[in-house]
Amino acid sequence: MSETTRLDEGQYLKVKQLNMRMLSEVADLKARFTGTAALDEQMAQAQARYEWDLASILWPRQMAAYTQSKLNVTAFNGR
């Protein structure tokens, strides 16, 4: 991500903290909601919060690059 969006040092540290928090939250959600229909909903909410927080860190041009790279990965994985 840092290469795709060309993060500066401060952004890199903030995104790293955000990613660590997201990983922790995902692990917690999987532990609490395993086998329930609520897991997908909770994961979607966590992803939305992640995207919102990420958008507050990145410049618009960087967010566009991130979004494009995410779409490229999704399209590649869908083949």
Describe the structure.
With 79 residues, the protein is an all-alpha fold. It has helices at residues 2-5, 9-33, 38-57, 60-77. The longest helix has 25 residues, at 9-33.
How would you describe this structure in keywords?
single chain; 79 residues; mainly alpha
Helical percentage? over 70%
- Biggest beta sheet attributes: none
- DSSP helical segment count: 4
- From the spread of the alpha carbons, the general shape counts as globular
Q: Give the overall average pLDDT.
A: 91
Query: What are the segments in which pLDDT stays under 50 over at least 5 consecutive residues?
Result: none
Radius of gyration: 14 Å
Strand content: under 5%
For the secondary structure, the number of strands is 0
Structural class: mainly alpha
- Give helix and strand order, one letter per element, not per position: HHHH
Give the CA-CA distance, first to last residue: 22 Å
